[in-house]
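Worked example 2:
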Amino acid sequence: MIRIILPHHLRTLAKVASEVQLEIAGPATQRSVLDALETRYPMLRGTIRDQVTGQRRPFLRFFACEEDLSHQPPDTPLPDAVASGAEPLIVIGAIAGG
């Protein structure tokens, strides 16, 4: 069971609480987790990653186990603590401005 914490605007869109739990078939990677998330919550398609390129949206970041995973390749295995459900994968909306 993979645990995912979404930012407020995506929780509102998907009509979920702060944490989502998903079963992932195969290895837990950013791609497999986001595929499962978009399958279960189709209204999130295109909000976290571009539908054509599959790249992460610029103002969203991925964190787990106190590490920024945002720039890792999408097929890199997630940390064992995330894959086991001990720690969540956190999606954070970046704040921009000056």
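The helical segments are 8-14, 30-40, 80-83. Residues 45 and 77 are 22 Å apart (CA to CA).
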